[in-house]
Amino acid sequence: MSETVKSLIYVGIAAAVALLAWLLQPGDVSLAPDEQIGKPLFPEFTDPLAARSLQITRFDESLGEARSFEVAQRGGRWVIPSADGYPADAEEQLKTAATLLVDLKVLGVVSDLPKDHKELGVLEVEKNSQMLSLDEGVGTLVEMRDAKGGPLARLIVGKKLKAKEEQGQANQRAVRIPGQDRVYAVAFDLDKVSTKFEDWIEKDLLQLKAFDVERVLLNDFSVVPVQTLQGLRKELRPRSKITLMWNADDAKWVLETLTDYTPAGERTTELLEGEELNSEKLNALKTALVDLEIVDVTAKPEGLSATLRAPRAKVEADRVFLDELFAVGLVPEALAGNEYVFQATNGEVVVDSKEGITYVLRFGNVAGAEEGTEVAKLNRYIFVYTRVDESKFPEPQKPSLPPTPEGEEPDADAQKAAQEKIDKDHQRALDSWNEKRKKAADRVAELNARFGPWYYVVSEDVYKQIHLSKADVIRAKPSTAEEGSGIDAFRQLEENGLRKDTGS
Questions:
Q1: Which of 71, 155, 169, 231 is paired with 21 by a 20 to 30 Å CA distance?
Q2: Burial per residue of 432-467, b for 16 or more beta-carbon CB atoms within 10 angstroms, e otherwise
Q3: What was the pLDDT predicted at 409?
Q4: Nearby residues of 458 by Cβ (< 8 Å), 6 or more positions away
Q5: Which residues are paired to 382 by β-bridges?
Q6: What is the per-residue pLDDT for 76?
Q7: pLDDT band at 19, cuts 50/70/90?
Q8: How many whole angstroms separate alpha carbon 56 and alpha carbon 72?
Q9: pLDDT reading at 1 higher than 70
Q10: Mean pLDDT for the chain overall
């Protein structure tokens, strides 16, 4: 073979390799920039209802790591996989997010140069990894998939384009399709693809109406685990137990019982002459219960029931299980039989409703800081379950047949008719009783099926609205209150008969 032929072969091979490399380069797009303007960025994604999952991945600069939020349809229901599969209220929101991508049109081409990606904020975030070397320039990765998991749209959303906003075209951002170099200008409202857990769930956690609240028990205590020679035990430190009833006729709270715990021991007391209920705090409590907002959830470990009970063998053998419960604020207490019950460390609130359902809210440890807020804004674990309020469903008693008046002969036919009427009336009463109680029991089962698998997390502000102490509930009347004096000091003065002369 001549040198000329060899040279031509080498040139041909080099040209073919160069052509292939050009065809496969990541920045390749099928249309020239001017031809893309006004056209859909995802032309094959035309039906918002085809979307079955949305994943949003952002780089948290404060933590130096990527954080993902996902909502998806699994087994015919919407869940949040990134929150242990918690049920989501997502159909309409996902449709809204999908419509943003379906209607996304190219308004312009910002750059074709990879070196501009950092400045435009469209660097691709790496999932499940730390990226400590990157402190800026990482975009938000939005991914939408269909029912089979196939990609419908993937987009890196970068910085807002200020020049375009000055021209009256708001919400324009730099965006890039992963694997391509080209950066586009599009109108995209990133706020409509929220990564806040609370934006994707049923917000009405208890599904309790204000007019249903009938009675509230505020059990203020703390439980401290203590290590002894005999092993770990709990130490209960009670402070007060207060029962309040809502009087709907007078639209006010009424104190039913007040148990106080002092170094001298337990005592039952009542409102003193110079005291009153703090209606503002109690009304805020009712509002917080009705509008109870959670900010996060964590799945309970297997083996812990909705009522916080667990088999004795599991508790005594599984140290990891026990450590997890300690961490969220649950301390074990051995029961007679083959199980333990776990007591929450920071008190409980029990709410009785008119429909015969009792809601039990128990409070655990601090759950860390609320995401995106200052460190001081803390969250707290709460544990929720319900039970039937049996006092609402007394079983109807069958009345006895009235005795025959003295001196009269019993009328057999009349007695038979009277007994039949008693039997029928009693059966109707039993049927009504069974129906009402079953309705309450079914509702309790439904609620516990929803509450049972989860630890809930609320903000510390919500916790303080619900978890009220004696000092929160009872206050000195304006005529007797003094600046800087608390209700305990006032009570001590009352009990010692040492009221100050207000005229001096």
A1: 155
A2: eeeeebeebeebbeebbebbebbbbbbbbebbebbb
A3: 83
A4: 292, 293, 294, 295, 379, 380, 382
A5: 363, 456
A6: 86
A7: very low
A8: 12
A9: no
A10: 84
**Per residue in 66-102, is it b (16+ CB within 10 Å) or e — as a string?**
bbbbbbbbeeeebbbbbbebbbbebeebbeebbebbb
Site of tokens 């337990």: 266
Strand partners, 174: 185
CA distance 319 to 344: 18
Q: How far apart are CA 368 and CA 77, in angstroms?
A: 30
List Cβ neighbours of 63 (8 Å cut-off, separation of 6 or more). none
pTM of the shown model: 0.77
Q: Is the distance from CB of 123 to CB of 134 less than 8 angstroms? A: yes
Is the confidence at residue 165, as pLDDT, over 80?
A: no
Beta strand segments in 161-212, E: 172-176, 183-187
Between CA 183 and CA 201 the distance in angstroms is 34
Is the pLDDT reported for residue 249 higher than 80?
yes
Tell me the backbone φ, ψ of residue 209, rounded to 5 degrees: -95, 150
d(CA 128, CA 410): 88
pLDDT band at 20 (very low <50, low <70, confident <90, very high): very low
Q: Which of these, 284, 320, 289, 279, lies nearest to 302 by C-alpha position?
A: 320
Classify residue 324 as exposed, middle or buried by CB count within 10 Å of its CB (0-12, 13-18, 19+): middle
Which two structure tokens, joined as six digits, stand for 463? 């916790």
CA-CA distances (angstroms) from residue 330 to 216, 264, 361? Answer: 23, 28, 13
Q: Which pLDDT score, from 0 to 100, does residue 22 have?
A: 38
* Mean pLDDT across 288-293: 92
Distance of CA 403 to the CA centre of its chain: 61
Residue spans of alpha helices (H) in 269-335: 279-290, 312-317, 319-328
Tokens 């301390």 appear where?
331
